[in-house]
Amino acid sequence: MRDYLLIYVNGRRYQVSGAQGFQSLSDFLRYDLGLVGTKVVCAEGDCGSCTVLVGRIGLPNSEGDSKLNYQSINSCIQYLYQLDCAHIITVEALKNKEQIHPIQQAMVDAMGSQCGYCTPGFVMSLAAMQEKEEVMTRKSVQDGLTGNLCRCTGYEQIIDAALNLDAKPVPSVTENFDEKTILSDFAVYLTQAVFCEFEENWNGVARKLKYFVPVSLAEAVSFQQKNDNVTVVAGGTDISVQINKERIEPDCIMSLVHLSELKSIFVDEQFVTVGARVSWSELGKFCQKNLPQLAEIIAIFASPQIKNCGTLAGNIANASPIADSLPFLYVIEAEVELTSPDGVRWLEINQFYQGYKKLAMNPDELITSIRWQMQDPDDLLKLYKVSKRKDLDISTFTAGIYIKMNNNKIQISRLAYGGVGPVVLRLPETEQFLYNKALTLETFLQAGKIAREEIQPISDVRSSADYRLQLAENILMKFYYECCKHQVKKA
Amino acid sequence: MKVVGKHIPHDSAVGHVTGEALFVDDLPSAKDELIVDFIASPVAHGKIIRFNFEELSQLDGIAGIFTHADLPGHNLFGPVIQDERFLAEDIVEYVGQPIAVIAGESRKAVRQAKKQLQLEIEELAPVFTIDEALAAKQFIGEARELKKGDFEKVWNEAEHKIAGTFLCNGQEQFYLESQAALAWRGENGEILVHSSSQNPTEIQEVVAEALGLGFHEVVCVCKRMGGGFGGKETQAVIPAVMAALVAAKTGRSARVAYTKDDDMRSTGKRHPYKIYYKAGFTGAGKITGVKFDIYSNGGAAADLSTAILERTLLHSDNSYFIPNLVFRAMICKTNFPPNTAFRGFGGPQGMANIENVLQEISIVLKKDALEVRRLNCYGHNDQNVTPYGQIVQNHMLPEIIDQLAETSSYKKRLTEVAEFNRKSVTHLRGLALTPLKFGISFTTSFLNQGNALVNVYKDGTVQVSTGGTEMGQGLNTKIRQLVAEEFAISYDDVRIMITSTEKNNNTSPTAASAGTDLNGMAAVNACQKIRRNLTEFASRYFSAPENGIVPSIEHIHFEAGSVYDDRLPENKLTFRKLVLQAYMGQVSLGERGFYKTPGVNLNRETGKGNPFFYFTSGAAVSEVLIDRFTGQLKLERSDILMDIGESINPGIDRGQIIGGFIQGVGWVTNEDLRYSDKGQLLSYSPTTYKIPNIQDLPDIFNLETLENPQHKINIRRSKAVGEPPLMLCLSVWMAVKHALSSVRNDITPRLNLPATAEEILQRLTELNGDLSNPETTAVRATESEVSLVSLPSISG
Question: How big is chain B by its Cα radius of gyration, in Å?
């Protein structure tokens, strides 16, 4: 057990403990290290100005060698306890001697900056694309930079910069560092869990805080059992926002960053099983081949920086009625694996939520994986996400529609709507109505009217209740035109 | 070695990409620095009863809490009407209004202390909407009126008529760098403020007044802003005063940097407008007369609202000749943060309104909207007089429209869109071309002045300082180019220095798109003075009376880094050597330049005059795709054509055009300010307030500029380009209206601005429903049913 975090920043080694480890990376960079090139605008992961690269040890290759895999993250919503044994590269380290990096030069030449405040973030996102060896096309650049807002340029010149870059071989931004030393340092320390405890005194009131970074599931489960009010952090893309905005003040954090047991996707004949530490980026890649409907949602719902950190398990645990994965999980009737010292149990997702942010799990349980049955390719599955802005926006309304046909009649239908109540809702009456019906426009017109009656959405910052009601009705017609009409013609 | 007209990267580009370009909150902390924050009103309107500031000030790590009572000077300010308080006294008038300034040793200490706040406020009835303000008769400033011809007569005789209500929402500037200031107290109580401000002179003056100092005791500097867009023209004042107050009171350096949340909640935005319009027109679509009753939502204080409303009046014609008109306008006082400047400055709202009118005329007449727009467009020899009497001269509006229609295949695509809409049950398309004409100059004529300081050093390098501020628009780059060109030296030998009131006094804000026009001209004026000195010196230096070459300034040339007499061209000196010789010859190598725009004036009594030096113009054509079931919008293609004169830096101007257009697209589509019924902004961060992101660009995006040989004025025959392109976004908004108008042909669809998916779906649902049944004409129907007759009469 260690009582400090080990973090490299731009090739320099830092041991961080106590209160210093309980802060966001962006604060650490700007205030402790004076690396002010990293800008903070929103402190909630929605603008990308604070983007940096984080390198972690990847799985060994066939020769048994590991290397650091670099990804972009929002440094404002990654706390240091999530970054143990990670190498952070900031915009300051891209220069080689006095020579600016080709990515930087491309941005200069294409006039990709105006006020310059968002620019370091864009440079780092481009560097992350380069680390992933992405081919630069207009589309790939848009996807790679979805998480970076710019208010000045209108983006075109940034796209120009990226496209100009592609023509030349570009050295990796990681070449400025001695990776071997970092890797061997990490290899030693990654075997040890980290536990830090400290006290804060303010006006005579003492407050005890602690954070724990286990290296095995057994350690994690045991910590969860022995401590009250453990705030479990996987990707931290929501919890860190809540902390930044002072909506929560956790005093006991457990960071799952090192639990490699939970980092895999297993596929067998019956199930797809997704570990709780599988990031959205990894799941997205898997779905592109295996589950295009979910891949479509993953493509638009968040930025690369968020998807590199956030997890499906986190989305479930967060329990938002507009969580983007839930309509899918509801209609596919996924199961959640809950692990406690007493063992493991599986709970069907439709039974998992008991009310707004109220989960059917015990305090000593951890979500360790999610599984669902492989679907029959003939079944109809469609997922919808309506948001103000198409990309990187919290949903106004979501829907999952699953239909199994038999003899040209609907045999099974499952409908789940998000954003229309305190939890994601199945629509039993509409499902009942659809039973044994043919796939006709009239069926879905009527189903839409019934669906509308089954929900009581509220008006909020994202939309009025009326809009949500109308969507609840219309989405079934949209489904008809997109899936069924075609289906009927085929038959 | 021509420098002007070249594609030279932004002055600070390398600093931007390396993170070495510093913004206010990046400046190093002094050891004694205090972190400054503020206590904001939680209610929109109320009376402060009691608070525990005294108790908070005793908490660990808190250096002090200051209220209006601590200001040595006065607590009132305002760029036009002094009606705004730095710190609330008894009454709070908007959510987010600063009540007290809190200073602490650390961010954490300040945050902790704020949690201990006890603040009791007795809530008073708030006023939020324009309608509520009209009912309560709460206004700011005077009613304004602009009249021409006899509207009532042509209205009564009109072949066709439309009447309706235009409604648009505000827009958050969303500069990435939130408001920030850093203040130091120097010797003898002098104050130095680093401010992220478009208007250092105003910061200097207001800080001085608040602290009871002379203007000469305050210096304001601004290296750069992380975006401004108008939001830092006046509203950088409050954070600057906060920091300066703490520095003055404690003697310690003081830093304030708003969080994005606080910035969005407590600062003003683009004004929401409501305009009642009436238009009479012929069967061909020619406007015979319009009447616009214009109301802006000014928020709780005047700020720049009167100037903004004036620009609305002067842009309610956009590019169209209107023979008879009445424009009446008023600012409503409400319980929101004082609304303020935002790129376009009242122009966009006025122009959106008349574009909507023209679109509706085309719908009523079942004509192509482009034909109607073209018919009413300002001409060259006739129909070229604006409502305020200025003649639109040397413009290319008809040419721009025609050329753009041609290059964008408008006609062909219009047919394709109609065909698509007939066939598709799932989607709708819309296409629209809108022109823009934007007047360049401050309409407050005396602001059209600038000064500059140019210093030439002994090695032939040059430093330039102007009152202009750099917010990303490339002002510094252009000025460097202009100065290099004047001396015929390399761009690298010129540096633009930090903007400081110490070097340039009594400057106007960097606003009204006029930054380069005013400051560039002033810098050139200073260069010319130095050049005159150098030319005289050179003429003596090169003279050779023995060869009959007497000193003659007409023969001296500055060219490619050298200076020579054309009678002895082989005898040239490098600029550097000449400067050194001139220095030793005791010639002045530093000058101040001054410039005022000639001939601009506006008589506010009569509403007539020549308020603008010239017009920047252009047009855009946009095509949108709408999902019939969700109302979601995709911008598929935009083509832009602009007349920006002879560009000083085409790369920078391209960035201004694209950036402005996309910013406007945000305003007309997804940027949706939503408030609670208590007046709290709910969409106060990028999670809920959605500015365009990189995926929102049109798939096909073409941008061209055209030659305008008639434009012969302004610096190096360039034109201002900062604000105008924003209004190209109206093509997108009108494309949505065009799409809606294809749903049924017996009715003119309404469309509010922004056209969010929700707004569009609501309109579609109305159009698909039974319109004879008032129940189905949805929620906002009441808005447009306000009768014109019931309007309170406002007279100019």
Answer: 28
